[in-house]
Amino acid sequence: MMQPAGKVFVVTGAANGIGEQVVRELLARQARVAAVDLDEAALQRLSESAAVGGRLSTHRLDVTDAGAVAALPAAVIAAHGQVDGLFNIAGIAQDFETAAGIDEARMRTVMEVNFFGTVAMVRSFLPELERRPGGAVVMNTASLAAMVPVPGAAIYGASKAAVAQFGYGLRQDLRHAGSAVSVTTAVPGTVWTELVRASANTLGTPEVVARTFAMPAGRAARRMIETTLRGRTRVVIGKDAHFYDGLGRLSKRAAERISYLQVARFVYRSQKKR
Question: How many CB atoms lie within 10 A of CB 42?
Answer without folding.
Answer: 17
